[in-house]
Design goal:
With 225 residues, the chain is mostly helical. The protein is 74% helix and 0% strand. Helix 6 (115-134) packs across helix 8 (158-185). The chain is globular, with a radius of gyration of 20 Å. The structure holds protoporphyrin IX containing FE.
Length: 225
């Protein structure tokens, strides 16, 4: 335990926490995007998917037991990811309080430079999103049993769709650079497989971003109604 805590206090320890929680969050977001695509099958299919999430594991487990276990793991991963990012940022700023006179972003692309603010935007998005489509607190016509109706009614409001689209672009950039850093931290990346990981990061970031963005766009265009 003490060994683990000591490791956490090092920069590499915090980066390992970011990488491991990043894998969990990345996996969730990918599977969730596939679930969202059920909107193209039918209203019944995506609504049945919501019922499945609640009942999965029963009768062996209680109803919602697996759902709540997943929620706890997801929340813990999110909190640890943000906490480690916050501490690494503070450490970075403390190491260079004045900042560079000339900022050179030689090895850094746009995705790398937007990790922090992009991360803040994604965190705000998650809070809004849960209030919008899970609890319905900020959705005027929310119906717990009708995910399809919630999506169509929700995304017809264009500022809401625009916010989702902007957040999904930020998420795509975050995942692109995140996969990259994660492989570096976990020691999976080297000179010979560099191209593979870049390709992997590009394909997954694009799939998640475009798959998700297609949902509000299809509603706005009247393809899904
Ligand atoms: C356009 C993109 C997205 C759509 C259409 C969408 C759709 C939905 C819907 C319909 C629900 C409610 C499911 C239910 O009631 O059973 C939900 C829940 C949720 N979504 Fe999304 N989502 C999107 C993007 C995201 C992203 C990018 C994240 C994470 C970064 C995310 C995280 C969550 C979480 C944490 C929940 C709550 C799950 C639970 O505790 O039951 N979603 N989403």
């Amino acid at each position: 335990m003490i060994g683990t805590l000591t490791l956490y206090q090092t920069t590499i320890g915090k980066k390992v926490v970011m990488a491991v929680t990043g894998v969990i969050l990345f996996g969730y977001v990918f599977v969730h995007m596939l679930g969202n695509l059920k909107i193209y099958q039918s209203a019944d299919k995506i609504n049945a998917y919501g019922v499945f999430l609640r009942e999965v594991g029963a009768p062996l487990l209680y109803e919602q037991q697996l759902l709540w276990s997943a929620r706890v793991i997801l929340l813990a991963a999110t909190v640890l990811h943000i906490w480690a990012a916050y501490q690494l940022t503070r450490r970075d700023l403390a190491a260079r309080p004045v900042g560079y006179a000339v900022r050179k972003n030689i090895a850094q692309g746009y995705a790398a430079r937007t990790m922090r603010w992009g991360g803040v935007l994604i965190a705000l998005f998650i809070v809004y999103h849960v209030l919008h489509l899970t609890t319905g607190t900020v959705h005027p016509a929310f119906d717990k049993e009708n995910i399809y109706g919630n999506l169509v009614g929700g995304f017809r409001v264009w500022p809401v769709s625009l916010f989702y689209i902007v957040a999904m672009i930020a998420l795509g950039l975050h995942i692109y650079h995140g996969v990259w850093s994660m492989m570096q931290t976990l020691g999976a990346k080297n000179r010979s497989n560099d191209r593979f990981w870049r390709g992997f990061a590009t394909v997954f970031a694009l799939a998640i971003t475009l798959g998700n963005i297609s949902v509000p766009v299809s509603v706005l265009l009247g393809i899904v109604r």
